[in-house]
């Protein structure tokens, strides 16, 4: 585990003693000083001095990104397409993602905002004419075209609720359009 309590790190890591000999001159023949060094545990996660102590009693790794050498790629991007197994996996992954992103068309008649506005118009508390409906259809077509262009779901462009509100209120300017709350 990368984040171990301090007491478990001490038991997981083993401490060994390394010796070094340094001589500065022939007259200086002092005994070598032993240096303590800590080895990595079996998993290779413990790095001496590489942790910062938090108040919660756990050790967390420090950021060594500025000290690490830049990584070199083992393979160039143009060579990846030559790996048939890799391309098979990528193709399957793309099809699975496509399945997740493929949705049925949203039915306008099942939209609560739309049905609410129609009911108010029938009760005389609002207005919904054929020109409102034509505008809404044009807005939905615009949204679908934009979604196809950017290869996203239409709902990511804007919601049907927003388009229904725009068709109902018919803002005369961009500023009025920005003020719409739905």
> Helical content, roughly?
40-55%
The DSSP helix count reads: 8
What's the SSE pattern?
Answer: HEEEEHHHHHHH
Rg of Cα set: 33 Å
CATH architecture of the largest domain: Orthogonal Bundle
Structural class: mainly alpha
Report the sheet with the most strands, covering strand number, pairing sense and barrel closure: 2 strands, antiparallel
| Uncertain runs | 9-28, 34-41
With strands numbered from the N-terminus, the spatial order across the biggest sheet is: 1-2
If you had to describe this structure to a student in words, what would you say it looks like?
With 182 residues, the chain is mainly alpha-helical. The chain folds into 2 domains: 56 residues, no CATH class; 95 residues, DNA polymerase, domain 1. It contains 8 helices and 4 strands, in the order αββββααααααα. Helix 4 packs parallel to helix 7 and helix 5 runs antiparallel to helix 7. It starts with 5 loop residues before the first helix and ends with a helix. About 15% of the residues have low confidence. This is HRDC domain-containing protein. Pfam families: HRDC (PF00570). GO terms for molecular function: nucleic acid binding; nucleotide binding.
Topology readout:
Elements: H1 6-12, E1 15-19, E2 34-38, E3 51-53, E4 59-61, H2 77-80, H3 84-101, H4 112-122, H5 130-150, H6 154-157, H7 160-169, H8 174-178
Antiparallel strand pairs: 1-2, 3-4
For this entry, give a set of tags.
single chain, 182 residues, mainly alpha, 2 domains, two-stranded antiparallel sheet, 44% helix
